[in-house]
Amino acid sequence: MHTRFNRRAIFVFVIIAAIGSALGVASCGNKRSTRKGIPAAVAVAPAKRELTPLPVRPLSPVLEGVRHRVMVVVAATRELPWQRDAGMSELSGWEYGTRTKELADALAGDELRALSRLAVAGGMLPEGTDLATLAASFTAASAGAAYSPLDKRVLILAGQGTEAHPAHDESLITHEYVHALQDQHFDLLKLLAARPYNFDRAEAAFAVVEGDAMNVQRRREQTDAVWSRRTLEEIGRNEDARFGDYRREIGAFFPPLLTETFIFRYRDGTRFVETVRRKSGARGVDELFRRPPASSEQILHPEKYFANEQPREVALDETRFTANNWKVAATTPLGELGVRGLLMKSLSPSEATRAASGWGGDRAYLFERARSTPLFVWKTRWDKPEEAAEFFRAYSILSDKTGAQREGANDPSQFIWRDGARLTLVRLDGDQVVVIRGADADARGALEFASR
Fold it and tell me: Which residues, in sequence order, are bridge partners of residue 43?
C-alpha cells in the first residue's frame, strides 16, 4: 500500500493538527498574549505517553538498506549530521491505524475537540464534526509512512520500501527521515506543541517543518542542478499542481479551509524554505527552527519574514463577556491563511487570495454558557481601511452562496444573515471587521462589546 492523494508523505504530528486547522483550541493565547495571566508562548504542554509498545521485529534486508542509504543522503543534502541512529518500525495496516489513533489522542485529542466546537459555532464546519477522529482516520488512510516525535522513529506501513516501487518509496522515506533529523537538532515537540496555542503561528511553524522536508525530497528527486534553475514562482506552481488529485478526492469531502491549509504547508512551505535557502544557505534554514516565522503571512510573503513584520495584536475585553456568564472555551488568531481558506468556500482561489492579502491581525473566540447557543466572535484588523472593506464585501458573499436570509441591506457598513437558529452579524469600522455568530439576542448584544 502506498500513500494516496498525490502520494504525500505526512508527518503524523503535523497532520493531526492540520486536518482540523480551522480556528483554535481550549486555553489558547496570543504570541504576545494580552490576556491577563497568560504568558508568552514558550511553555510546552506535556504530551501524554500512554502508547502501546511498538512491535519488535527486524526490517527486511531491502528496507534496512533503504534506511541506511536514506540517512546518508538526508544528512548530506540537509548539511546536518545525525546525532544518533534513527530507527524505523514496519507496521501492519491494523498496527499503523491503531498507532495513528493513539498519537492523535496523546498529542492533540482534547484540543481538536475544542477546535471542532469553535469551527462549528463559526459556521465553518458542519454540525457534529469531530476533528480528533477525522485527523486519525485521515492520517491512517493517506500516509504510507510517518515520523512519530513520541516514538522517535519513522513508522512505515508494511509493503513500502519493496522492490516493486523503489524510487517512490525511497523518496517517501527520505521525507520522513528529514523530520527525524529535524527532531534531533531542533526538538519538534517543543516547536510545534508550544502553549498557549496560536493557530496562525503554529501553521507557520508547520510550513517550515514540511517545507524543509519537501525541499530535501525534491532536490534528491530532481538533482540540485535542476532544482536550482527553477524560479521560486515555478516551484510554487509545481507544488500546487501536485495536489490536483488531492483536491479532487479529499477536497470533494472537506471544506477548502481544511484542504487548503494542508496544501499550504507543502506548497507555500517549500517555496518559503527555498527562498531562505537561496538567500542564506543551509544555516539560514536552521535559523528558521530557532526563530520561526510569526505568522502564515510571513510564509506567504517571505519579505515580511526578513523585515520581521509582526502581526497586529487584536483582543476583546473578555470581562464584558464573562460578566454575562460567558466562558472563553477557545481563542486564537486565524491569520492570512485562515482568512483565505474560509473565503475559498465561496470565492475563487485568486479572489480569496486577493481579499485576504491585506490582513494585519485577528483573533477568533468561542464563548460558551450553560443552556445557551455557543457564541462565535471574530475580530480582524487590516493594513488599510480599503482592504478591510474588500474583506467585508468578500465575506458578505458567503451568505449569498449559502442562500441564507439577509437583513440590514440599507446599512453599507453592516449586514446580517440568518442560518437556522443562528444569526451572523458582520460590521465594518475603518480598518476593522467584526464577525459575530450566535443566537439572535446574544449576537446583537455582543456586537457592542466586540466593536470596541
Answer: 195
- For residue 238, the tally of other CB atoms under 10 A from its CB is 15
At the topology level of CATH, where does 318-450 sit? Protein Transport Mog1p; Chain A (3.40.1000)
* Torsion sign over Cα 392, 395, 400, 404: negative
Helix axes 256-290, 335-343, angle to 10 degrees: 160
pTM to 2 decimal places:
0.87
- Which strands form 405-407's sheet, in the order they lie side by side? 327-332, 359-368, 375-382, 432-438, 422-429, 414-419, 405-407
Residue 361 pLDDT greater than 90, yes or no: yes
Q: Name the burial class of residue 351, with classes exposed (0-12), middle (13-18) and buried (19+) by CB atoms within 10 angstroms of its CB.
A: middle
Domain spans, the chain:
12-306, 318-450
List, in sequence order, every residue forming a beta bridge with 88; answer none if it has no partner. Answer: 154
Mean pLDDT for the chain overall: 83
Percent of residues, the chain, with pLDDT higher than 90: 54
Residue 44 has pLDDT above 90, yes or no: no
Instruction: Kindly report the number of other CB atoms within 10 A of residue 373's CB atom.
Output: 18
Spell out the long-range contacts of 385-389 with Cβ–Cβ below 8 A and sequence spacing 24 or more.
385/430, 385/431, 386/358, 387/357, 387/358, 387/359, 387/431, 388/358, 388/428, 388/430, 388/431, 388/432, 388/433, 389/428
Residue-wise pLDDT for 82-137, tens only, equals 999 999 999 998 888 888 778 777 766 666 777 778 888 888 877 777 776 666 56
